[in-house]
Design goal:
mainly alpha; 62% helix
């Protein structure tokens, strides 16, 4: 899964203070990209949880087969 984070703009960074002064367009692009990253992260986490749950169920079933506890 890939996320397209490409965006070309002239970002205004004050060289003397090192502060980033984003324009309204920069802020909007940053916000959109951040939301995409959060969405993808949430999806990956859900997929990992599903796989963990599946694996856990397999171990429980295997345990029941080998142990008549």
């Amino acid at each position: 899964m890939t996320i397209d984070l490409s965006y070309s703009t002239n970002l205004s960074i004050n060289i003397k203070t090192g502060k980033f002064n984003p324009s309204d367009l920069d802020r909007e692009v940053i916000e959109v990209r951040w939301l995409k990253i959060k969405r993808v992260s949430k999806k990956l986490k859900e997929e990992a949880n599903t796989e963990d749950e599946y694996s856990r169920n397999i171990f429980i079933e295997r345990g029941k087969l080998y142990c008549s506890c």
